[in-house]
Amino acid sequence: MAPGLSIAIAEKRFGSAPPLFSDFRLEVAPGSILVLLGPSGIGKSSLLRLLAGVDRDFSGTITIDGVAADRAPMPGFVFQDARLLPWLSARDNVLLAAPPLGAPAAEALLDQVGLGGRGPDFPAQLSGGMQRRVALARALAANPGLLLLDEPFVSLDAALAAEMRALLARLIAASQPSMVLVTHDAEDAARLADRAVVLAGRPAAILADLALSVPQAERDEAQVAEYRRRLDALAKGPA
């Protein structure tokens, strides 16, 4: 079952620098697709590490279904690059996240992301887009109920990014996870999110919180363009 997240960060800072977050609060409903928008350096990736429980150096509380993030099941995490181990096959890179799954289940996940039959291949035998698909399969192996994605389409050309968004949309429809995706691109939110939060400032604060009421599967290109326009305008702040 997809979990809910509760974020109440009293303070997060690095050394003597100004706080990255201060009195920052955010609730994520179970099964919702939240996209966090903001410029580079605002703290989006840091927030994902806090949600994953790998960074515990902050004051406050972050819980996943009521359990502290550092004690909750590890989420499925997709990084800005694939981060595959080059000496392992695609199948074994997936199994690395959850060894008890077994090879048949890993192959099934690869098939789910469009890489059926490529399990024995090593990362060097796969294109960049294929490696991103393996990384997505690995995240699903780790925890299909909670996915954290850190700029998953960055550095991809427009056609490949569109292809990956479409794949992710299909996976969301199939498994209905809770998901937090961070990006600087309003296109990602306009196509995937049911809620978009725009961050700004230092410490980072919520500049805008927009519910995208038209279901993702029902959005036509005109609706996507309208959401993108609204999000771009919100990111610019008051005139």
Structural class: alpha/beta
How many beta-strand elements?
10
Secondary-structure element sequence? EEEHEEEHHHEHEHEEH
- If you average the pLDDT, what whole number results? 93
Rounded to the nearest angstrom, the radius of gyration is: 18 Å
Low-confidence stretches: none
Which fold name fills CATH's third level, the topology of the domain at 1-75 and 180-239?
Rossmann fold
Q: Given the structure, what is the number of helices?
A: 7
The CATH C-level class name of the domain at 1-75 and 180-239: Alpha Beta
Q: Helical proportion?
A: 25-40%
Task: Bin the strand percentage.
Answer: 15-25%
Distance separating the two termini: 42 Å
Order of strands across the main sheet: 6-7-8-3-9-10
Overall geometric form: globular
CATH architecture heading of the domain at 1-75 and 180-239: 3-Layer(aba) Sandwich
